[in-house]
Fold this protein.
Amino acid sequence: MMTHEESGGEEGAFTASWDFHSAKTLGQTINALRKRIEIPADLSDYMEDGIKCRNHIVHGFLTKNMQRLMEFKGRLEVQKELEALKMEVKARDVVINKLLDALFAKYGLSNAILKHQAGEMYMARNNPKSGSAH
């Protein structure tokens, strides 16, 4: 959306930017956002911590803790650690969704509207009664 705005609404700018950014990691995408808009240092650090928590979960949390998962006490510890990481990520999700809603509002959209539309599209594509299921 920011690329679209920066290009003065040039045809295809949004799609080209989407293709480019969709291949980037979450951290790279946040860095691209920082270059386009001013993000307060404390918010930037807060989001960076969230990215670290998310990456810790996604990149091998279970495999790195496999030995601990084999024991009752270790399993409980791993569960508590995972829950704490999840809560850190969810807290950042709330903040980023507020920022996104502010950007989306310019186009008459919101996270709620987009989630609803995505749900409708999913149901339309995956409803066996419609005959279009894959």
Remarks:
- Residues 72-105 form the longest helix (34 residues).
- The chain is about 75% helix and 0% strand.
- Residues 54 and 73 are 24 Å apart (CA to CA).
- The mean pLDDT is 80.
